[in-house]
Write a structure and sequence with these properties.
Elements lengths: L1 H22 L1 H11 L5 H33 L3 H20 L10 H9 L4 H10 L2 H12 L6 H21 L1 H47 L1
């Protein structure tokens, strides 16, 4: 029982830190504030709620279908680990430079979404919150579940992260006033550093898994 609690707690913390770092709610808060500045406070709260819900549904679907996608396309976990590590490393470098990745949203996507009646689903829900990095991480985590019940741990971590995202986004203007742009840039860089470490670990795990059977066979 103790081993079960310990292993699931470690897995939960790993999922939590990975998803929180990749979604980067503090980093995307200024962008959300700019995109929703023409709306009233109640409308901004509704957009934050609907955007977070959209991201939640998206990540849950990828968590459930992650293994199926691996099997259908014949993708190995090791290949996805290395690819995911490279992607995370790239995003981490951008975060260290305090830049919003272009993979999240483009100026054309922003202009088109601003003209629509509802921008919560896109681009805020997808791909601003549930971007390529978060989707990749969710699929990777679902393929690494220690046990079947660990899917519940992933679901819980997604719920916790997106609940925190919702609270940050709905109070984004207040957060910027309290912390200031400089402090938010520092926090974003720290999160980028954490992401770089996670990226390196993913590449190491994938490489070791590939090379270990080859080394054992040559002995």
């Amino acid at each position: 029982m103790i081993d079960f609690i310990q292993s699931e707690t470690q897995f939960f913390i790993f999922c939590l830190t990975t998803l929180f770092t990749l979604i980067n709610p503090i980093g995307i808060t200024p962008l959300l504030v700019v995109m929703t500045e023409r709306f009233s406070k109640d409308q901004r709260i509704n957009i934050a709620k609907k955007g977070s819900l959209t991201a939640f549904i998206t990540l849950i679907l990828f968590a459930i279908l992650g293994s199926f996608i691996f099997n259908f396309f014949g993708i190995t976990i090791e290949a996805f680990q290395i690819m995911g590590g490279i992607l995370f490393f790239r995003n981490g470098l951008r975060m260290l430079e305090a830049k919003v990745g272009r993979s999240r949203t483009t100026p054309a996507e922003q202009e088109e979404s601003q003209e629509s009646d509802d921008i919560a689903v896109s681009p805020i829900g997808i791909p601003l919150i549930a971007g390529p990095g978060a989707i990749t991480a969710t699929m990777l985590l679902s393929s690494q579940t220690p046990q079947l019940y660990s899917y519940a741990t992933i679901g819980l971590s997604i719920s916790v992260v997106l609940s925190f995202v919702y609270l940050i986004l709905r109070n984004g203007d207040l957060l910027i006033k309290v912390l200031g742009t400089s402090i938010m840039r520092i926090i974003q860089r720290l999160m980028g550093l954490i992401l770089l470490v996670i990226a390196v670990q993913f590449v190491i795990n994938g490489t070791v898994s590939v090379l270990k059977p080859l080394i054992m066979a040559s002995l």
